[in-house]
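Many introductory courses stop at the sequence. We go one step further.
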Amino acid sequence: MVTVYGIKNCDSVKKALKFLNEHNISYSFIDFKTSPVPIQKIEQWSQKVDLSILFNTKGTTYRTLGLKLLDLDDSLKIDWMSKENLLIKRPVIEYNSNVIVSFDSPKYEGIFLP
């Protein structure tokens, strides 16, 4: 089962969903804006993906909150991501026991296509 986490208007999420649709890969979509991701889920992801990949330092939310000035440790990054889901790099895809972050067509081909 494939579960995609993100927001509908994110370009990377749109690309990921388009890829899955084009290859007839069924998935469920969880929108951060309507179903916030709990801290427990983010902690699970952080066991499989480095926080430097999962924590979005390039987005508007990161800049607006001034988080660069705070020099956050991993625990605080997880805490912030649970309060502000837009700090999570998108999309996050759960597939089998893997967690895949962001859109990368060649990587997706290697993971999802036989």
